[in-house]
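Let's do one together. I've listed all components of the complex below, 428 residues spread over two lines.
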Amino acid sequence: MTAHSAAAAGVKRERILDAAEKIFARDGFFAAKVADVAKDAGVADGTIYLYFKSKDDLLISLFESRMERVIGTLAAAIATVPTARGKLLALIRTYVGLVKDQPSTAEIMTVELRQSSKFMKEYDNPKFAELLRLIAGIVSDGQAAGELGDAIPPAIAARMIFGVLDELATAWLLSRDAGSPGRAAPRGKKFDIVRAADWVGELVTHGLSRRSHA
Amino acid sequence: MTAHSAAAAGVKRERILDAAEKIFARDGFFAAKVADVAKDAGVADGTIYLYFKSKDDLLISLFESRMERVIGTLAAAIATVPTARGKLLALIRTYVGLVKDQPSTAEIMTVELRQSSKFMKEYDNPKFAELLRLIAGIVSDGQAAGELGDAIPPAIAARMIFGVLDELATAWLLSRDAGSPGRAAPRGKKFDIVRAADWVGELVTHGLSRRSHA
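Okay, and this is what the predicted structure of the assembly comes out as:
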């Protein structure tokens, strides 16, 4: 493959991923048709299968591509912050900001992804492990510096922080504005997810802080 | 319908739910066949549809039945505990104990349930709302008594606590023992989820506690 055709293949792969993101968000992963992704990407149906083995593989590749962006954005947001507390607050605010600004992407990465049995049970998920390591690293550094208490292992703390963020993101994404069209039944009222970032920060930083009486 | 046949119908409905729990846990919700549920319950295929409209409806009914038990167990566990901190710790330990003792049920209620698009997007989920209200009530009482800080709204605190518990349950359920048969790829090592309950308790009670410097 020449450098030119490799670049062209990369561009086509990205175009298919962008189309998959759009179609999965519109129809849901389960109902989404690979043919509709192909149509939106402007390629023949069979072309998709030159790049991706199956619809599950397309979802997993989409997840990896978007997760890589998320991790890059989070890493940049915490890079110059000096304290563990500050890094945790910056990470939480940035994560919530991404959910708010890119709700379609966020919905695929929370709600739709879990509809793939293959993703949930068979996929090793290295990008998710990388996100957890990024969070655990903040906690671990903060514990080593004596800024955070060391009662909770960093890997478990990372899981808990992700759990809080993921639940609030899911709750917010599945909730509906009063006049929102589309989905059948409204499920709770939209809350202010940016405000919620402060509450997550409050719970997490105080929950992990060092205490004399612990 | 006579009292006798109403009771018999109730028993049959329960038998179908027990069978669904077994088959969904064994095959996964998506791959599970209603015919296999019928066979395991010892009823004709068509009988299932006298009680449940669809496979999604069967899953939702199963969820409601099990969630009712979970809420009853949690409510009993916190009933006689005097403080909000004590109630939160009791609720967390009891929840984690249920996950550990009934992993098949827990897997359906975390992993499998999310594979139903209908459940995630269209179902109003009154039982889940009831669980959140139970947790929010503890937080709200603790705030009113001045035992907990009031920076975080009780409904949001409940979501965050559920998020932590749900993420740890999912991580534990999807992780595999070294010698575990069945699933394709191992996904992290099993951790001690009972120990993890202490860490959740630590994060949550300290995260929500009243602070003079807040």
